[in-house]
Prior knowledge:
Layout: H1 7-16, H2 24-39, E1 43-47, H3 52-63, E2 67-72, H4 75-81, E3 91-94, H5 98-102, E4 107-110, H6 122-145, E5 154-160, E6 171-172, H7 182-194, E7 202-208, E8 210-213, H8 217-227, E9 240-241, E10 243-245, H9 246-258, E11 264-268, E12 274-275, H10 276-287, H11 297-304, H12 309-312, E13 316-317, H13 320-324, H14 334-342
Parallel strand pairs: 1-2, 1-4, 2-3, 4-5, 5-7, 6-13, 7-11, 8-10
Antiparallel strand pairs: 9-12
Helix pairs in contact: 1-2, 3-9, 6-7, 10-14
Amino acid sequence: xxxxxxxTSLSTSFALSSPPSFSMQGTRxxxxxxxxxxxxxxxxSVTGATGFIGRRLVQxxxxxxxxxxxxxxxxxxxxxxxxxxxxxxxxxxxEPEWINCVKGSTAVVxxxxxxxxxxxxxxxxxxxxxxxVRVTSKVVELINKSPVEARPTVLVSxxxxxxxxxxxxxxxxxxxPSGNDYLSEVCREWEGTALKANKDxxxxxxxxxxxLGKDGGALAMMIPFFQMFAGGPLGSGQxxxxxxxxxxxxxxxxxxxxxxxxxxxxxxTAPNPVRLGEMCQQLGSVLGRPSWLPVPDFALKALLGExxxxxxxxxxxxPARAKELGFEFKYKYVKDALKAIMQ
Length: 343
């Protein structure tokens, strides 16, 4: 389900369903609730809104009646994904107009970045880093330039579990050091850029794992192979797969926007990571397809080059901070997440 009811929306709907002959006291209560709902309404500027996670976040914000400003490099593409008839009132702005959106926003969510699941050439590696660091730098610059009375108070910025490097034996949480490979370097620079936001701006960095959902992300690429009876572990199958259901990730971002305790690094992963072999076995079971046919290392390296490290190596990442904050994961086990996605 995309729509999660807040206390204010539940209370408002209760007041609306009251019979016409309510008392003056009931009228006053209704008026106070409407005012409270209006006061809690946010204006959120979002980069990466046209991507897999961004689309779901925009839907969630709209369902909760918040104002949305989409910061994009392609207005026609964004208008196609968010047509005015379905998203009335949404603001779509290309880069020269971003300043007018960021200024006056309650919060900014930064999700922009070129997908990493592709063949890495030197040019692509440069774009993977630049697409993240450049947009983050631009967003931070616009936040800092905004007058104090119109400056966003919250920046929720994506980063990735690639920060920790890879390991088959290590366990990582938010206090773990960074790795020493290419993706670790990208994440360090990405996060460091976000942290240059004005000291009065609360910054939450969400280190995102592999996001599961039917209409995008890793699962959308894996499902067709299983449906053709060609699915199975990638490489050894022993590499760790730190995953999160897209609904839980969107909810984590949403709570980070609204809860002042959500600050600093927060791992965006489910509490029970699995080995990739188990993930493939569970997916095959849910789809009613075998998962015995492994994809060998050399085939992936031939297809993706250095980019094969994304799927051939992994890390076991735990959401320690989210659990400390009391965040409730709807999908704690990969089997339940896969069943929900495939229903």
